[in-house]
Design brief:
single chain, alpha+beta, 6-stranded mixed sheet, 3 helices, 6 strands, 32% helix, globular
Length: 136
């Protein structure tokens, strides 16, 4: 796995694009074979079409969602762990999701390869170490 751009920098650009509703403008930062496994759904989203489909599903289900990142841990050049919080409201204004956000993200050649949600920071860091060991 290569790392022509900082994984943290790529993540920051993707986070900003999502926050401004411009994720399509940042698809060049997402590998065409990317896999997203996020805790707000049991679905696995694959590739650019999967990322787009996930965004459509989230917008249909939620009137608004606030994702905050409290900590971005650069495990190595290809792996980061992000902790934060997600709060989402449905179209009637009811809070329907309120939970910690814990993601491990993998990168290669300046593009996102995948995101997986975990139940705790410790679990994500263990998974990151295992991914690093497999890559070595």
């Amino acid at each position: 796995m290569g790392g022509s751009r900082s994984s943290r920098a790529v993540f920051s650009r993707l986070w900003e694009a999502y926050g401004h509703g411009r994720l399509d403008d940042a698809l060049h930062l997402i590998d065409p074979d990317c896999t997203l496994r996020v805790s707000v759904t049991d679905r696995v989203y694959r590739g650019h079409d999967g990322v787009r489909a996930g965004m459509v599903e989230f917008h249909k289900a939620w009137k608004s969602a606030t994702l905050t990142s409290d900590e971005v841990i650069e495990v190595d050049a290809q792996t980061i762990v992000v902790t934060g919080h997600v709060t989402a409201f449905d179209h009637c204004g009811q809070r329907v999701y309120d939970a910690p956000l814990v993601w491990m993200a993998l990168f290669s050649d300046g593009r996102l390869l995948g995101v997986t949600s975990y139940g705790s920071r410790a679990d994500a860091l263990v998974a990151a170490a295992e991914a690093r060991a497999r890559a070595d």
